[in-house]
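Thread: 2-keto-3-deoxygluconate complex, take 2
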Amino acid sequence: MPELVTLGEPMVLLLAEGSGPLREATSFRRFIAGAESNVAIGVVRLGRTAGIVTRLGDDEFGRAILFRLRGEGVDTTQVRIDPQARTGVYFRDARGSGRVEVLYYRHGSAASRISPDDLSPEYVTGARVVHLTGITPALSPSCREATFAAAEMARSAKVEVTLDPNVRLRLWPADEARRVLRDLAGRADVVLAGADEAELLTGETEPEAAAKALAALGPSTVVIRLAGRGALTLAEGQIAQVKPSAPAVALDPVGAGDAFAAGFHAARLRGRALATATVVGLRCAAIAVASLGDCEALPSWDDLQPSGADVRR
Ligand code: KDG
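Output below.
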């Protein structure tokens, strides 16, 4: 069984070439994206094992994703081909920084039909970490049920549950996102959130107060990414600051949180402490944003250069 199991929707990404607004884009490059598959790919590249529970359409984009996941070494035994629906697609521009325009074509997609029936108890409880995101419960009622069912299955077997809120306000209203994700955070052991997401979930504008408010929901560990200023960790009541990784040119900031999560998990699966895992996560995020696409630049363990702490030993 893979060490990390995740649940969500991989998609084909059509990334606009050039730097203008999406409405003016006339040519696109095709990538594979999706927060959860990004994390699974990242963990495998870093030398650990990961698998994804999902559904893909019986179409060429579904095959592109399946072959890519297999090629990366992600466990695809729990990927179901659903002939009733298509693989999700999304478009976005590539402006490098600032607001990124996203256009989803995923309503009614194969992955939006994921349900608790897609979860094998042996698979979920055989993992060391179950990584959930706030995207999957936003996709459909059955996806939401499956997300909560995965959290409960893992918890009942004392498998660590991690939540990255990954708030996507194009998928659901802020009030609903807040309510559902607070509930999910209460069922997680670890929450890995961006500062803006932590604020949305707690109403606290200061990361330290937001971390405490998130921990009050239940998780024993909270990590807040501070967008270029490192991260803040909270565990056993202790707050710590982790310095940012060496600055990188942010060519494509989308996927930074997934790269962080992949590095964090891979380091923890190697037995690293919270502070080192956070350094590794920040390093992976800095590397990932320097290339176009969500997961193309995700590093191997050997690619990680010492940055403040020697993360490789
Ligand atoms: O974290 C990166 C994701 O946002 C991207 O890959 C697409 O999964 C995606 C989503 O739902 O926005």
